Amino acid sequence: MLRSRQNLRSGWSFKQHDDDDPGAWLPVETLPSQVHIDLLANKRIPDPFMDMNEQSVQWVAEKSWQYKLRLPAPAIHCPENTSTDLVFEGLDTFATVTLNGVEILKSENMHISNRVNVNMTWNSDSENVLEIVFDSALLRGRDIVKQHGEHQFFARQTEEGRIPVRKAQVWGGGIYEDNAFLDACDELGILVWQDFAFACGNYPVYAAFLESIEEEARQNLRRFRSHPSVVVWAGNNEDYQVQERYKLEYFADDKDPESWLKSTFPARYIYEFLLPKLVQEEDSSVLYHPGSPWGDGKHTTDPTVGDIHQWNIWHGLMNRFISIQTGKDIRDAIASALYAQPNGTTEVHKKQRVAVAAYAANTADDPFVIHASLTFNGELVATDTAWPEPFKYLDLNDRHVGLEIYQSGGEISIASRLPIKGFVLEETEGMKLSDNGFDLVPGEKREIQIEAGPTTAPLRWTYLGAPDETSTYRPKL
Fold first, then answer.
1. Does the pTM exceed 0.70?
2. Residue numbers in the chain where pLDDT is lower than 50
3. Distance between CA atoms of 199 and 202, rounded to whole angstroms?
4. DSSP-assigned states of every residue in 446-468
């Protein structure tokens, strides 16, 4: 049987989906790509990694984008009785694909490939038009959260540093790497710890999502299983730490997967039932670990079981400074003595006064910035305060902190007579705050827009060193 393959990497164009201007279409240099790269190449946005440009390109993620490829009739010759498939190797993420105006695929997972037979829609004697519309993942994600109110969604951003060893850990917040990466690890003898693509969150378990997870896992297990460098699959990155942080339900003695689905941490079903079952079915020779870190129901910081993520470098005990002597000398510091003869040396250093100019009679110390604010178009976007560190050594008790809170419609004004580190307002169900989690310095006022939720619970706040009983205030919004 004859088989031919053609890569559709060039000839694409794209535009904002709701822009009906015929001149809105812009060229795409090559695929794979993504919309920020294509907009930058066409000089429609500034480089997001330069200056404050990241702020000016936020709108891109809130729009839908349409990509189009025109294929002239001779581009792919299809003899009679030939089957024609289109293969998509990862559409990111909510994508609708049409061929000649007919919808052929809806995809909601970029970690799987899709093969679609197009015999019924393919024009063998005229032009074919392939179009892909990518919905805003940001907006679709918000809709999903609203649709599944039964689930507590948590998502955390983390940064992880690793000591250089002959191991590559591909964490769950990344991607399933290309085969070229796996080939290189096979050749160089680098062991691969591969996380499934779950990280720093509490994932839902509604039926359509579980089906997508199973398809994603099977496809990648089949692709990875021929590479001897892949030695461990882990269910997630730090999701069990999310469970601990937010006190989600986890009973180690409960071994019934069906009951896990009804808990506030239903993702346990994914990591301790679904994924290990799929690993056993697709690649039983590889090790499976429910999470990174994970200790068989023990706390994720327990160093006696499982693995741990060592964050103590930043947040744990402060070890002694290395120059402070704590041991015994094992040899003399002076091995021998040198006796100088009279007039046998020359003075090369002599105490003297050094004249230093004080321009404009300024002899004060150099200024030291304690607090800085950054505004963008008149709006406060960031602040930084130079606090003495580490914070755990600061005595912040009995500071007699006074807070003044004024209400004006849906606005709260917060001020302090003394510096405050880590001021946080409690967010109740349905409440929306324009700002939260910040430092305060004397003379500064922080204006916060607040939308109350369905409850009328008092507004509570705390800060580093605050008394056990935090202050409360009942807003009338």
1. no
2. 157-164, 474-477
3. 9
4. EEEEEE--S--PPEEEE-TT--S
Structure tokens at 286: 């590889």
C-alpha angle 84-88-92 in degrees, rounded to nearest 5 = 155
User: CA 448: distance to chain centroid?
Assistant: 26
What values do phi and psi take at 45, rounded to 5?
Answer: -140, 155
6-27 burial by CB neighbour count: b if 16+ within 10 A, else e?
A: eeeeebbebbbbeeeeeeeebe
- Rounded to an integer, what distance in angstroms lies between the CA atom of residue 108 and that of residue 120? 24
What fold, for 403-473? Answer: Immunoglobulin-like (2.60.40)
Q: Please say whether the beta carbons of 300 and 241 come within 8 A.
A: yes
Q: Which CATH superfamily is domain 12-138 in?
A: Galactose-binding domain-like (2.60.120.260)
Distance (Å, rounded) from C-alpha 280 to C-alpha 268?
A: 17
Burial class (CB in 10 A: 0-12, 13-18, 19+), 462: middle
The 8-class DSSP code of residue 442 comes to T
Q: Please report, for residues 67, 81, 298, 308, 310, the alpha-carbon distance to residue 304 in angstroms, rounded to integers and kept in the order given.
A: 52, 64, 9, 9, 13
Q: Tell me: the pLDDT tens digits for 301-312?
A: 888 888 888 777
What's the token pair of residue 389? 């560190």
C-beta neighbour count of 417 within 10 angstroms: 14
pLDDT tens track for 82-131: 788 999 998 988 999 999 999 999 999 988 899 999 988 988 888 899 99
The Cα 80–Cα 343 span in angstroms is: 108
**Which tokens belong to 307?**
């693995």
CATH 2.60.120.260 in the chain: give the residue spans.
12-138
DSSP string, 373-440: EEEETTEEEEEEE---S-GGG---TT----EEEEEETTEEEEEESS-EEEEEE---TT-EES--SEEE
Class of domain 149-289: alpha beta
**Measured between alpha carbons, how far is residue 204 from residues 106, 149, 274, 410 in Å?**
21, 10, 13, 33
- CATH 3.20.20.80 spans which residues of the chain? 149-289
Rounded Cα–Cα distance for residues 99 and 216 (Å): 24
